[in-house]
Write a structure and sequence with these properties.
Elements: H1 5-16, H2 22-29, H3 33-46, E1 65-73, H4 78-89, E2 94-99, E3 106-112, H5 115-126, E4 132-139
Antiparallel strand pairs: 1-3, 1-4, 2-3
Helix pairs in contact: 1-2, 2-3
């Protein structure tokens, strides 16, 4: 989607801080408050704005361990895929699930308190599932860059 320069500024501003008032947004992006309000309504209506959230610090929230787990399924039947998706949705520790190309079928981003809690999670949920053939866990040592802002 192509955006005008003012629209791009508005989208970057709300990605950086969704708590800004209409007046603050208008001042930052050089638009009238009524125009900002109308643009935001349009962005909502088209589905461009998917939601508004507060981002928490994983460390301060007690979820300091970040794991990227590559999952290979036993079979790729529709039933297996749907079952795996249901398994993923049941666990709030799984922040992201991506279907990927390559040797794995899925990549999971998992946040846990520590290694012990991840081991428990793995052994009780992922490895006990008849759907999962293999799990390869990669532990994030240091996060170099993390953003939720899209390059608008």
């Amino acid at each position: 989607m192509k955006f005008s320069d003012p629209e791009s500024r508005l989208l970057r501003a709300i990605q950086a801080d969704a708590t800004l008032s209409l007046q603050s947004l208008a001042e930052r992006v050089g638009m009238a408050s009524s125009t900002v309000w109308r643009k935001l309504q349009d962005f909502d209506a088209t589905g461009l704005i998917a939601g508004r959230v507060t981002l928490l610090s994983p460390k301060h929230a007690g979820c300091g361990l970040c794991v990227l787990a590559q999952i290979r399924l036993r079979t790729h039947t529709q039933e297996s895929v749907e079952g795996f998706m249901a398994l993923v949705r049941q666990h709030e520790e799984i922040l992201e699930c991506l279907a990927v190309s390559g040797s794995a079928d899925y990549m999971l981003k998992i946040r846990m308190a520590d290694m012990e809690s991840y081991e428990t999670f793995m052994s009780r949920h992922l490895l006990r599932s008849d759907l999962v053939a293999q799990v390869e866990s990669n532990f994030v040592l240091r996060e170099i860059k993390h953003t939720t802002a899209l390059p608008i």
